[in-house]
Amino acid sequence: MSQKLSLWLVTSLVIAVGLLASNTQAARAAGSDLVSIQTPSGVTIKAEVADTPLKRSMGLMYRDHLEKNHGMLFFFGQPQAWNFWMKNTKMALDLIWIDSKKRVTHIERNVPICTKSDDSCPQYRPNSDDAIYVLEIAGGTVDGYKIEKGSKLQFGQP
């Protein structure tokens, strides 16, 4: 009897956690404003805006994929050499640091996931301290958008 109860509890817990994670991702995506970012290739990226400490700390954590031509634009109130890491991120990403004039100042390509459970995941940072935005897109896609250091991206104020 106790073995059946334990199995039932474990199964119920797994289902509940899965539903909660799915609903959290859907709510996060639905509740976020999207900004359109025009790339040098002419393709428009639809990016969720991470403009609060909570949104920035969550970023794209726990997501399995990004839709084609989608990403997340982190907006900071002041220029700095903003550090990023891949803890709890389930997909490789291209990271693009952008200054206040919307010019690309640094790119990290195809940054791999980090499966470490502690806080020892590598950190990624630009070579300069002038970034006010950071754009995260699917890993390996930055070159297809013809985005390179010095490129100017076009988008409205998030």
Task: Please name the CATH topology of the largest domain.
Answer: Jelly Rolls
Tell me the span between the first and last alpha carbons: 57 Å
How many whole angstroms does the radius of gyration measure? 18 Å
Indicate the percent of residues in helices.
Answer: 10-25%
How are the strands of the biggest sheet laid out side by side?
1-2-3-8-5-6
Strand content: 25-35%
Overall structural domain count: 2
Report mean pLDDT, rounded to a whole number. 85
SS summary, helix count: 2
Main attributes of the structure:
32% strand; Jelly Rolls; 22% helix
In short:
The protein has helices at residues 2-30, 53-58, and strands spanning 34-38, 44-50, 70-80, 84-85, 93-99, 104-111, 123-124, 131-138.
Describe, in plain words, how this protein is organized in 3D.
The protein has 158 residues and is an alpha+beta fold. It has 2 domains: 31 residues; 125 residues, Jelly Rolls (Sandwich). Helices cover 22% and strands 32% of the residues. Strand 5 and strand 6 form a beta hairpin. It is globular and about 40 Å long. The N and C termini lie far apart (57 Å).
